[in-house]
Amino acid sequence: MMAFMCSARPPPQLIVQPKVGESLRGLRGLASRNGGGEFPPFLPQEVENIRDTYARNLAQRIVRLPVQIGSSESCIMSSCVKPLIQSEINPVVLLHCFDSSCLEWRCAYPLLEEAGLEAWAVDILGWGFSDLEMLPSCNVASKRDHLYQFWKSYIKRPMVLVGPSLGAAVAIDFAMSYPQAVKKMVLINASVYAEGTGNMAKLPKIIAYAGVSLLKSMPLRFYANILAFNGISLATTLDWTNVGRLHSLMPWWEDATVSFMKSGGYNVKAQIKQVKQKALVICGEHDQIVSYKQTMRLYCELPNSMMRLISDCGHLPHVEKPNSVAKLIADFAYFDCC
Question: Which residues form a coiled coil (predicted)?
Fold first, then answer.
């Protein structure tokens, strides 16, 4: 039993916060102060159809920065949201889920800035809004190297690396390869026990592309949003589906996704017990995608971790309960406690 395995650890603390509409109410004034800007020209034109104020505000702040590829002289213009401030404490670097973008952080990002944190929201290579016209390999090694080169060029200090869902596997993989770059980790509803992309890596390319086209479809994305969130309205689900799907309209998206799928994906479960950094494990109480049992297993196996459970919340607490997540990240970044 997990309870027995974790008998030496304190039980996870339950964080009770308002529902979605209430938790976002405190952001209204901040959103109204930021509105009225223009979208960067490299975003798909469908960004104009998004109604979510926080997504529109953050989309207006997305920039592309040159990131060198490995030892070559060529660069990728890589998409991210840059911080407005530089803090004396460790910068916070926000990753995102599988097949997503920095827009996941639309609600929590301004709260992290209000807390005085130097926050970067970074698009993982092969997803997001980078310029990948000259498509590089999008396997795990390439994603890892790209993140390292980004860190080396722009962040340059040990960071608090935040990974939701598959982003937690990205964070663990990176921290094991470049421990000097990672001071602490925050892992949110972490998907870290899957053995890569499994049989999908063996699919013929024509079938892989057909599957990826299905992944792009509105019905599948809409259903994924129903699973990911806990009791949001139909209108909000539709709009958040458009937000989550926006990056898949980039011209290189299908090729990059097939490249990742065929490469085998992330398999970090053998590395978890070797992680040396302090880690905060955050779990949504009603996550329908990553089980509570898996989250407890991660909490038990990480050598130096604490766990917080967010009430009345699904798979993406940083979208659904941004106040809770921003406070937990800020407290962990500043004080090692929450």
Answer: none
